[in-house]
Amino acid sequence: MKTISQQRFSRQGVRNLLAGVLVAAALAFIAWQGSAGALTMLGYLPVLIASAIGLGPDLGGSVIREVVKALGSVVIPMAIAGLGYAALPRKPLFGRVPTGTLRTGLKWSVRVAIAVPVGYATTRIAWVLGIPLGLSSDFLEQIQDIVINGGMLAAGALGGAVLTWGLTRPWGTTFPRWIPRLGGRRVPIGLARNAAVFVGTAVLSAGCYFIRSMVTGNISIAPAGAEQQIAAWLPEMFWPIWGIALIIAGLVYAELRRRTGELLDMSAALLTSQDR
User: Fold this and answer.
1) What parts of the sequence cross the membrane (predicted)?
2) Mean pLDDT, to the nearest integer, of 188-193?
């Protein structure tokens, strides 16, 4: 007969195994089915919003279908990984990791999640300015019609880098006072965490897509000859690192905020008891 502790350990082992299988399945889905669609959608989000409210071009139903498909490439693996997390015992994800270690991890994951998009954006902005950074002059001339698209994606990457930086800044915890209605209020933990995880998953998916495309030699969304131009493909090879770093940053940020909130609650309770 198994003791109660043995039965509990056995159930926990099964749940841990199930969680591992589901997370592995999510990663496998991204590796084999990942696409650049969701990240592209985020880059062109201003255009999509303008179109939706009648201030931009009419994108038509086909584009809407592509948006839904792109969202699926991110939402599906997130849902699978979420089921894996739900299978774990109800404990904080980083419950046993010292706070100091978490702070160091957040600092470095944020640095990585900033460095990669800034590097990518640098090349695209250079092309917009007519500088053949990492390209031949002839190829830059060939893609003049689409360099503005790269500039828009670069702007999105830089904006994302600024928001990522916010995970380690005071305004990443409290909304700046100049923001109407929200200024001075605490940033919801779930908002920052979920945004980081969603975008990180989109970046990871896109990075896996580009790596898969380079390996197979089928770069369908790039101009002919792009595989021979180092700056046209090399920055994207680091996107999986960017995505993983951003996901880690969002999760660690949430855990640090949770611990800080508990400390504040304990301090308030202590002060209240002393007043009595």
Assistant:
1) 12-32, 67-88, 108-134, 146-167, 237-256
2) 92
